[in-house]
Design a protein that fits this description.
The structure is a single chain. The chain is of the alpha/beta class. It has 8 helices and 6 strands. Strands 1, 2, 3, 4, 5 and 6 form a 6-stranded parallel sheet that branches. Helix 1 packs across helix 7. The radius of gyration is 16 Å and the shape is globular.
Length: about 200
């Protein structure tokens, strides 16, 4: 069994259709912690020591957020800036997060076709997520490919439900340790492990 921490950041949750459904699929389990940053820190006054303690207690860290201007919402960025301290998360003596797994679970308004070299946004999701990957690398963490729900402005209820079921499968597999790192490194998106045996 693995302890999973979902760090969730959405500044306009009341208007979210996709993330609202994803949240409903989070299993109720002792080893899965849902942590809503905007609910806890509406004033952006982050309790750094409490957040560090939470990280130490978990094996898998999921950054769940909408894709805002090719990155994460501002409170999640501030969380990264403040909590992942020099000498604790990285740098000399900074080994607190070594070998923990991290990945992004994100929603994008644009469809997958927009995130290609020939698409509207010119780059792939993986290219846009390089800063998160490098952050994990600097902290000696293991960075997995993202879980994606794309085209949320036009997605049908049926397709959105299917994606939310994939998220449930993913969280279940992660919390049960039902995956291998070598196989995950062969896929582009974590959505794939919901339909393939790994």
């Amino acid at each position: 069994m693995k302890k999973v921490l979902i760090l969730f950041a959405h500044p306009r949750m009341e208007k979210s259709r996709a993330n609202a459904l994803l949240l409903k699929q989070i299993p109720t389990a002792d080893n899965i912690t849902f942590h809503d940053l905007y609910e806890l820190y509406p004033d952006f006054n982050i309790d750094v020591e409490a957040e560090k303690k939470l990280l130490l207690e978990h094996d898998i860290i999921i950054l769940q957020h909408p894709f805002y201007w090719y990155s994460c919402p501002p409170l999640m960025k501030q969380w990264i800036d403040m909590v992942l301290e020099f000498g604790w998360a990285y740098g000399p003596g900074g080994t607190a997060l070594r070998d923990k797994i991290m990945f992004n679970a994100i929603t994008t308004g644009g469809a997958s076709t927009a995130y290609r070299s020939e698409g509207h946004n010119r780059f792939t999701i993986q290219e846009y997520l390089r800063p998160f990957e490098q952050t994990a690398y600097l902290c000696k963490m293991i960075y997995f490919p993202p879980f994606l729900v794309q085209g949320t402005h036009r997605i049908t209820d049926e397709d959105l439900w299917r994606m939310s079921e994939q998220y449930l499968i993913l969280l279940t597999k992660m919390s049960q340790g039902n995956f291998t790192e070598s196989h995950i490194r062969q896929i582009d998106y974590l959505n794939e492990i919901c339909v393939k045996s790994i």
